[in-house]
Amino acid sequence: MKGMAAHPIQFDEEAMNFKDTATRFERAESGTDSFKMLAKDAYQAMKDDPGNAGLYFVIGVAAQSYVRRYEDQGVAPEFADKAKAILVGYNAKIVEALAGDAGTRLRLLGEVALDYEWQVQDF
After folding, report:
1. Is CB count within 10 Å lower at the N or C end of the chain?
2. 115 is in which domain, residue-wise?
3. In a domain, 15, yes or no
4. What's the 3-state SS for the chain?
5. Are 88 and 45 in contact (CB under 8 A)?
6. 82-88: average pLDDT
7. In angstroms, rounded to a whole number, what is the distance separating the alpha carbons of residues 110 and 24?
8. 6 lies in a domain?
9. Backbone phi, then psi, for 117, in 5-degree steps?
10. How confident is the model at residue 4 (pLDDT cuts 50, 70, 90)?
11. Contact in structure between 16 and 22 (CB atoms under 8 Å)
12. What pLDDT is recorded for position 6?
């Protein structure tokens, strides 16, 4: 409209940073080094974006738990791929949460936390 400035959609910088982290993890190999980097990045995101620390924390805990349990042992590629797919799904929910309002963030955080606690038995 005339007289109105166009406002491009702006994305929260932290959401974009975590989206990059999620994409990097999704494209990486399924080895423990990828999980270790994801945990490190999630914990760093907590420091960089304390208002959303809970979102990053649940990812960091899941990734770190996988590393602690499997770092020094061989795992079947199918198992590693399955674990990675779980975290890719969680990352997608966190990216979605970061783009949403407070209610959406809390709901998606709850979904990830409940699934990890009650459905994931291996890490």
Report:
1. N
2. 28-119
3. no
4. CCCCCCCCCCCCHHHHHHHHHHHHHHHCCCCHHHHHHHHHHHHHHHHHCHHHHHHHHHHHHHHHHHHHHHCCCCCCHHHHHHHHHHHHHHHHHHHHHHCCCHHHHHHHHHHHHHHHHHHCCCC
5. no
6. 98
7. 24
8. no
9. -70, -40
10. very low
11. no
12. 39
Read off the pTM.
0.87
The answer to whether residue 11 is domain-embedded is: no
Whole-number Å distance between alpha carbons of 8 and 27: 29
Domain count, the chain: 1
Domain membership of residue 3 (yes or no) is no
Read off the pLDDT of residues 53-65 as tens digits, 9 standing for 90 and up.
Answer: 999 999 999 999 9
pLDDT value at residue 119: 96
Smallest CA-to-CA distance from 42 within 10, 20, 27 is with: 20
What does the alpha-carbon distance between residue 45 and residue 102 come to, in Å, rounded to a whole number? 18
Assigned token pair, 28: 């990486």
Half-sphere exposure in the Cβ direction for 93 (13 Å, CA): 23
- In the chain, the amino acid numbered 51 is G
Gap between the Cα atoms of 33 and 71, Å rounded: 8
